[in-house]
Amino acid sequence: xxxxxxxxxxxxxxxxxxxxxGPAGLVLGTLLHTAGIDCVILERASRxxxxxxxxxxxxxxxxxxxxxxxxxxxxxxxHGSRHGTCEFRTEDGRFRLDYGGLGQGxxxxxxxxxNLVTDLLTHYLDLGGRIRFHTEAQAVHDADxxxxxxxxxxxxxxxxxxxxxxxxxxxGRHGAARRSLPPSAVRRHRRDHGVTWLGLLAEAPPSLDxxxxxxxxxxxxxxxxxxxxxxxxxxxxxxxxxxDAWSEERIWDELDVRVRACDHGPLRRGGILERAVFDLxxxxxxxxRHGSLFLAGDAASLLAPAAAKGANLAVLExxxxxxxxxxxxxxxxxxxxxRYSEQCLAHIWRAxxxxxxxxxxxxxxxxxxxxxxxxxDTALQRSRLASLRTSRVHQDWxxxxxxxx
Length: 405
Ligand SMILES: Cc1cc2nc3c(=O)[nH]c(=O)nc-3n(C[C@H](O)[C@H](O)[C@H](O)COP(=O)(O)OP(=O)(O)OC[C@H]3O[C@@H](n4cnc5c(N)ncnc54)[C@H](O)[C@@H]3O)c2cc1C
Hints:
Blueprint: H1 3-8, E1 10-19, H2 23-34, E2 39-42, H3 47-52, E3 58-59, H4 61-69, H5 74-79, E4 81-83, E5 86-90, E6 93-97, E7 108-110, H6 113-126, E8 130-132, E9 136-141, E10 149-153, E11 159-169, H7 176-179, E12 187-203, E13 211-214, E14 221-225, E15 231-236, H8 248-258, H9 261-264, E16 271-286, E17 289-290, E18 293-295, E19 301-302, H10 310-331, H11 335-362, H12 375-390, H13 392-403
Parallel strand pairs: 1-2, 1-11, 2-8, 5-13, 11-18
Antiparallel strand pairs: 3-7, 4-7, 5-6, 9-10, 10-11, 12-15, 12-16, 13-14, 14-15, 16-19, 17-18
The structure holds flavin-adenine dinucleotide.
């Protein structure tokens, strides 16, 4: 912050300043507020934007247990549904895995992320929690010094400086928390899986009673239920091609080809409500702490959505961080904060490992053989699928990892 900004800035304070009102920030804010900790959530977007951003949908049993433990699961129990089957379609036919009954796994709850975020936000506000919408954090200052603070820009453009004892960076992959980390203090490990997806939200009932994974020479296609009226589809996509390059009809025709609708039945079509292109890239920040600044959720680690882990990790990390911050502020016990990074990184790397495995399972060749062909990777992919189809041990392993965080 410059001298002149500093003199013009409004001053506010909270023991914990939470950046971002996604699943991580809202769970963290709620748990801190309930424990009597002085905290505020600063959110760049409007309340409507936050409550309507459609992203995740599959919540793991551990996530549901955390939400239940803190009285945050009423909505998902009332309106969500249980899910425990996936169907793989390949050139060798199709096979189903009832992962909900295998291994130490369990079933997913299907509940759209925007509904969960709406529930969390309503609950937080009902408790009297403090939140500022339209307030963009610009930078975290002095995170490793005596006077940590967050510089924000208010809706009217005025700068405000928030003094804090601790700052929780829950503001996603492009947020201010990540930007404020000095390169010498952390490492960012990044992996590009070399695959791009077109993510679609269709106003159409699910076509399968399972998560559908179609593996095809023309690329991967995915089907995931969201609600009885809305279904998420994914198409592996040529990198660099715009999301609106294809007509709706061409998209549905291509989905039909890749899911082999001629063999297994047509998809139920409907209007496409949303489309977005994203590269399947992952990263991990290590450590998840710099002085008084802690990272959680996508700010800590970004996972490709192939294995549906991101929102689940965000909720888990928020609970761990809430407990550690409460111990530090209410009882002067900082052991939890000292453990936070190592404890959460163990879960993150496990989730990254499985996400990488899923990505290789679902997509065609990533590398080239010595002769310039791609037989090697294709054969490995087929072998992996054959093992999953036939080996009970492999299926148990899959089930545990698929729903675990
Ligand atoms: C298409 C898709 C499907 C997915 N499916 C699944 C799934 O089925 N299961 C699963 O577990 N995960 C899934 N994920 C991942 C999941 O959505 C994310 O991991 C999850 O949203 C992370 O939560 P978060 O709270 O960390 O971050 P976010 O939800 O990104 O929230 C961050 C918040 O911070 C705010 N913000 C950003 N910058 C600033 C700033 N400078 N100042 C103030 N506020 C700021 C943003 O506006 C936002 O509200 C999916 C993701 C995508 C894209």
